[in-house]
Amino acid sequence: MSARSWSLSLLCLLPLTSSADANDRWMQFRGPGALGVADGQNLPVRWSETEHLAWKKEIPGRGWSSPIIVDGRIYLTNVVSTGEVEAATRGLYFGGERFEQPDTPHIWQVLCLDLATGEPVWEKTVHEGVPPRSMHIKNSYASETPVTDGERVYAYFGNVGVFCLTLDGELVWEHPLEPHATRFEWGPAASPALHEGRLYIVNDNEDASYLLALDAATGDEIWQVDRDESSNWSTPFIWENELRTEIIAPGSGITRSYDLDGNVLYEFGGASAITIATPYAHNGLLYVSSGYVMDPRKPIWAIRPGASGDISLGLFENSNDSIAWCVKDAAPYNPTTLVYGDQLYVLLDRGFVASYDAATGEMIYDRQRLPAGQAFTASPWAYDGHVFFLNEFGVTFVMKAGREFELVGTNELDNEPIYMSTPSMASGKLLIRSSEALYCFQE
């Protein structure tokens, strides 16, 4: 079978789910609430190329988006080049800039697989052509995880556009987007957010950054507001707290909260030079982080509901009326932090783990080294009393959740591909995507 017909694009679906079907759906990046937690599904703690492997499917092309899962199906995004493609490299991003634009046609696709077997159900080409801009060697043209409302799939490809498909692969609408330059041509990667019939997209770039709201039914623009930001890669988060619903859009200059009409509710500064991690909320607090490796500022904030105006911390402040706590030198670069139980876990890109009290920010334990941890891009996840850390070589370190740093296992996969996608979990199945294949593990 041709590479094109097998090209699978790995997507992560976004929308909200009810408690009844929460374990059967993973509808956005990092799943329900963007928390990365999947308790009570009898998921495996140990796996390998043979142990607890339900199936493994080759995926030609390149895409770092996560899979999303709904009603027994997996939806993915992927882009296949018709020419030669330079292989991605492991480790930090320095030296990976590629300023020369590709000159061969690429194929942007959304694919659907059967969750039980991994067999293709359908694939849909949504765009073909020469990429409008270049990208970093460690990026892909399908890095944005899609989102679903359980009836449609919404796939966003940074410099191309947004595409809405039925769960059976029929194109409902498309909304083209103008390509923009990103910092050093690293390319875009922020995923969309979906809430009550609206799709929200943050596009922070070097030309004209914006927050865009689209009608999920038609693809029509509802509103667009300019953002005074240069390039960032953070997925927006819809925070439904006890007082109101907010759109949280982190930035290197200013992190802003917007109402559902695009008006700024409050903002705060103090981030590092590059912001990638996704915000999320737990037990009434909003968690935001920004941790560029070359910047001494690496803050993690915990925000209370109801803020207004400028809530930035002073130079010697670690809290105020709106910010419950801030640790100013703790955030990771690429991975998002994880709150599990009453602890916040930090996975640093070079393989260190630290933990803080999620309510107070008090350190539980300082940075502990994962053995031969190497490079980490995927965000950590948790279930059934364990926390998991996947490195770019396909090694997952398994830690017992709790106030002591206790490793209980190491799961190894084929180390030839590169592993940069954040895994997904639903219906008792764990999905891990490499640069070459999609794995499904189950008890």
Q: What is the helix tally? A: 1
Largest sheet: 5 strands, mixed
Name the helicity range. under 10%
Q: What is the strand tally?
A: 33
Global Rg? 20 Å
Q: What class, by secondary structure content?
A: mainly beta
Q: What is the CA-CA span between the terminal residues?
A: 31 Å
Strand order of the largest sheet: 14-15-16-17-21
In terms of DSSP E residues, the strand content is: 35-45%
Shape assignment:
globular
- Uncertain spans: 1-20
Rounded average pLDDT: 93
Question: How would you characterize the overall build of this protein?
Answer:
The protein is mostly beta strands and 443 residues long. It has one helix and 33 strands. A hairpin with a 3-residue loop joins strand 6 (147-148) and strand 7 (152-157). The chain is 1% helix and 38% strand. The radius of gyration is 20 Å and the shape is globular. The protein has one helix at residues 3-6; strands at residues 53-58, 68-70, 73-81, 106-114, 120-129, 147-148, 152-157, 161-166, 171-176, 193-195, 198-203, 210-215, 221-226, 237-240, 245-249, 255-258, 264-268, 280-282, 285-289, 300-303, 309-310, 323-327, 338-340, 343-347, 352-357, 363-369, 381-383, 386-390, 395-400, 406-412, 424-426, 429-433, 437-441. The protein has a five-stranded mixed beta sheet with strand order 14-15-16-17-21, with no helix packed on it.
Give the SSE layout.
Elements: H1 3-6, E1 53-58, E2 68-70, E3 73-81, E4 106-114, E5 120-129, E6 147-148, E7 152-157, E8 161-166, E9 171-176, E10 193-195, E11 198-203, E12 210-215, E13 221-226, E14 237-240, E15 245-249, E16 255-258, E17 264-268, E18 280-282, E19 285-289, E20 300-303, E21 309-310, E22 323-327, E23 338-340, E24 343-347, E25 352-357, E26 363-369, E27 381-383, E28 386-390, E29 395-400, E30 406-412, E31 424-426, E32 429-433, E33 437-441
Parallel strand pairs: 17-21
Antiparallel strand pairs: 1-33, 2-3, 3-4, 4-5, 6-7, 7-8, 8-9, 10-11, 11-12, 12-13, 14-15, 15-16, 16-17, 18-19, 19-20, 20-22, 23-24, 24-25, 25-26, 27-28, 28-29, 29-30, 31-32, 32-33
